[in-house]
Amino acid sequence: MVRKPSGQRKTFKSQALKPRQAFIWSMATIKRAAAEVNRDLDLIDKERANAIVQAGQEVIDGKWNDQSVVDPVPAGGGPKSQRWTP
């Protein structure tokens, strides 16, 4: 009988750490800037780009500070923090 993992929380133990606010702000700033540039170059549709810009600005403004739940040190799972950031 093969036993399947019941979820990531049980497979990888949390470090109980949160990323620094400066890291979250930096990632949001980079993603917002990338969306603006790609929109201006017509590489992404305006509606999608504007949604990314708005989400990035909300993160920069601190609207979602209590929502940062990704460990800053991935346990072999890859760059989770980059995927998590808007």
Molecular structure report:
By secondary structure, the protein is mainly alpha-helical. It has a domain at 18-63 and 79-86. The protein has four helices and no strands. The relative contact order is 0.20.
Key attributes of the depicted protein:
mainly alpha; single chain; 86 residues
Number of helices: 4
Strand content: under 5%
The coarse overall form would be elongated
Count all strands and give the number: 0
Radius of gyration: 16 Å
Helical fraction equals: 40-55%
Distance between the termini: 40 Å
Mean pLDDT: 75
Largest sheet: none
Q: H/E element string?
A: HHHH
Which structural class best describes the helix and strand composition?
mainly alpha
| Low-confidence sequence ranges | none
Could you outline the blueprint of secondary structure elements for this entry?
Elements: H1 8-11, H2 21-40, H3 46-60, H4 80-84
Short description:
The protein is an all-alpha fold. Helices cover 51% and strands 0% of the residues. Helix 2 packs antiparallel against helix 3.
